[in-house]
Amino acid sequence: MGAVGTNFDDPRFTAIGLFMEAYTGLTNRFAAQFEQHRLSPVEFEVLMRLARSPNNRLRMTDLAGQTSLSTSGVTRVVDRMDREGLIRREACASDRRSSYAVITPAGIQRLEEILPGHLDLMQRWFIGQLSPQQLDQLMESLRLIRDAVNPCATAGTDESLPGPAAPTR
Asked: Which fold has domain 11-158?
């Protein structure tokens, strides 16, 4: 017991601590590989979100909702990646205030260079650590938590549309 009666052995601390330690360990392994390909983790995330979205594009606001970036942060990242030729901006025909981020062929090529090594890392340090049943259960649990804490995470994707089961992201 702590001085004020806090139970520092509360299993909730252990649960979130284990999650954060696993996340940090994975992101550190991934970041080293991204660096070899001259991309930051957030740039990789932006490219993957766009590549996996309908027509390889998302509204800027939806891209911000799906990533760890603020609206102004996503603007800065998109502008930088646009200058590098990895993505481009397109005006929205129906709303002049909105614009889309669209992955370019150069962005797809950069992903194709990164993905074999990234998939190997994911398999070795994440997927391969779990049985298929454990992985299914973990993914279901992560979706529940994600939908509760980040309801915008699927904005602009097929998963955000009502109707039959949408592809998983």
From this structure: Arc Repressor Mutant, subunit A (1.10.10)
